[in-house]
Write a structure and sequence with these properties.
heterodimer; A: about 120 residues; mainly alpha; B: about 270 residues; Immunoglobulin-like; 4-stranded antiparallel sheet; 11 strands
Amino acid sequence: MSRAASLAFLLCLALGVSVGLYLGWVASPVTYVDTELPALSQAYKDDYILMTATIFAQDANLRAAETRLTRLGLGENPGPAVAAAAGRLIAAHQPEADLRRIVKLAVTLGEITPEMQPYLP
Amino acid sequence: MTRIFTAAFFGLVLGLAGGLLYAWVIAPPEPDLTPASLRADHKTTYIQLVAQTFAADKDIDRARARLSLIGDAGSAQAVTALAQRTSASGGDAATVRALAALAAALGARPASPTPNLAPPPTETPVPTVIIEPTATLSPTLAPSPTTVPTLTPQPATGFEFVGKQLVCDSQLTQPLLQVVTFGAEGEQLPGVEVIVEWVGGFDHFFTGLKPELGEGYGDFTMTPGLTYDLHLVADPSAAVTGLDVPACPQDNNQTYAGSWQLVFRQP
């Protein structure tokens, strides 16, 4: 291959890679369908946990709450994940009523962290 | 020259393939997966969770915002349909009530003019239940002038049976037990569970699963020849017994199967 042909190959290779990355990351990125609950982004997982905590605050049915959390892929010990979600919601200055509910669920699951103290039941 | 073009072409194709492979397979962008991306059964779980949360916190704006995350599957009509499916499949009664209440709060109504159920009577024992027919809705109900009002003693709490009304509408394809429930303020109440019993069987249904007919409306299809007893789960004393398929007169001196409309109200 002549030097000119090699140069043309390399230039067009670089151009092709650039166009491919643009198409794959920007113009037509991968879309996800039919996903599982555990695949949700963290913000939506936190909201799912908050909804579970809101229901638990009313019915005090821990088994039902654990079942809901299991669907989110939190395993048999969802306490740390609930505590972590509570920490994120506290840091985001969510409404106090929400914080009290999620802290109550975290505490019921055996998790207490220093930032939860103002919202303990 | 041809060799240069050939090299350029192969370079471009190879680069494009490599770039796409990297962007789509090897290192796709970090996904921001919303509830809209969930599988259908997980969307159902999500809607049920939103309904149960709404039952707990009564925050309809928040419920609406959460449902908007799953697109059309979270519309009021979809929630109503889910409530109906859950009820029909013998799902958890509390979940059905929550879904029905959420659908009603979302205002699940068709865009066309809708039937309107008047508030329950307060002074007279004769229920004045009027369902206005529409061009798009079937069945449409036209109350017969033949009314059979009955009253039961009012319970201190729960519901009271206000009265029953014969509904003669030849457009109804099946005889129905129609129940309409009202709150103390005259508002229609969705999510009220109704038990229907007959010799050899029983069934249940909820008000609010056909919000286009009223948020407090629910019905049950009667079988000719059977006699039904009906009561509300929330207040078993709110009961009506001995209901069978009534006969409605036709012009040619014949009859057809009519329906009963039963009105209950919180005192």
